[in-house]
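Quick illustration for those who missed Monday's session on complexes.
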Amino acid sequence: MRILVTGGCGFIGSALVLHLVRDLGHEVATLDALTYAANPISLQPLADDPRHRLVEADICDADAVQAAFADVRPQAVMHLAAESHVDRSITGPGAFIRTNVVGTQVLLDAARRHYAGLAGTDRETFRFLHVSTDEVYGSLPPDAFFTE
Ligand SMILES: NC(=O)c1ccc[n+]([C@@H]2O[C@H](COP(=O)([O-])OP(=O)(O)OC[C@H]3O[C@@H](n4cnc5c(N)ncnc54)[C@H](O)[C@@H]3O)[C@@H](O)[C@H]2O)c1
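Prediction with nicotinamide-adenine-dinucleotide bound:
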């Protein structure tokens, strides 16, 4: 599959991208703004791998996100780009609203437009997976699973 992974230079995102490409053989485009939280060296093992590329862009930048969808034509999106260090939201909540809320909305909008142009199996199988946190979804009871 061709998968667009946002936040793929982060802690969890980079492990996911390595797994998708090296273990599962998918084609991945990593879209990441390379903020203070990024560690692009984690993706160094893919430097010469034609199945991976890095798109340096901000998910709040609608034109850049739109261009990435047009270029990559993803069959799935895995959205991990976030302001994830929750303690920082006490002193600087703006960045959290911007990336986690506005950026997610920009991404969903682009995905919806992309989805509208799909047909047949591509349309049936397209998925948008939003990876988030218990601060958003709430705590999970010990013996239960989430359903969106
Ligand atoms: N790390 C954990 O233990 C943990 C636990 C539960 C949930 N999560 C969730 O998983 C997701 C990923 O977490 P993580 O620990 O890998 O985060 P991280 O902070 O390590 O990485 C976030 C990545 O997103 C990128 N990014 C930030 N703002 C961006 C923007 N505006 N546009 C494009 N890229 C941007 C950063 O450059 C970075 O590479 C988050 O939603 C987080 O809440 C993480």
